[in-house]
Amino acid sequence: MFTGIVEEKGTLQTITKNGRSLVLTVGAEKILGDVHIGDSISVNGVCLTVTHFTDYHFSVDVMPETYEATNLKDLTRGSEVNLERAMHANGRFGGHFVSGHVDHVLTIEKTWRDTIAKYVKITVPTDKAKYLADKGSVTVDGTSLTVFHADETSFTLSLIPETQAATILGVKEAGDTVNIEYDVLMKYMERLLTHQSHEKQSSGVTEEKLKDLGFY
């Protein structure tokens, strides 16, 4: 579990491709201070397991499912990536609950600036727009962000200068892809309400049946 507060930007040192799987070696500093084999690290919003590390870099495997579901396959040597260690249970919780399980890859439609703010508009499938709400949370390339505006076809983010400097979103522009993870609480709520609706339908209790039994 992560918070979506990016700790540092790492640099992809090597990428080894084997069909639909990858081995990534990422150069980093801050997050390596207490790293262990088997630790979870979010790389551009994707929860990956550390398989090897030194004082200057760490390696992770990217499985076929992750290869297909994320934009990690588009990385090249020298690419910068957002990095975050798994959250501590006793630490500050500055973002929102982020699982590191990417829902899908979306494309930036356009960006523009207004004084110090950078606005990013991202096209979203209509069946996923239900997970977005004005002032709600969304994870973009591992960064916990507040939705500035949402409609049925897109959502817009407003990036403060700190986010622009501390994450790779500061340099992304129209046509670039981003890993998206919707707020897991929204998805759980949808699941709960759908399940309750199905239970009511399967119970056999309907308005017509109540009328037949004399309750109306």
TrEMBL record:
Keyword Transferase part of the UniProt annotation: yes
Transferase as UniProt keyword: yes
CDD domains reported for this sequence: Riboflavin_synthase_like
Enzyme Commission number, as recorded: 2.5.1.9
Signal peptide region: none
Subunit structure: Homotrimer.
NCBIfam families associated with the record: PRK09289.1 (NF006767), PRK13020.1 (NF009566), ribE (TIGR00187)
Protein name (Swiss-Prot/TrEMBL): Riboflavin synthase
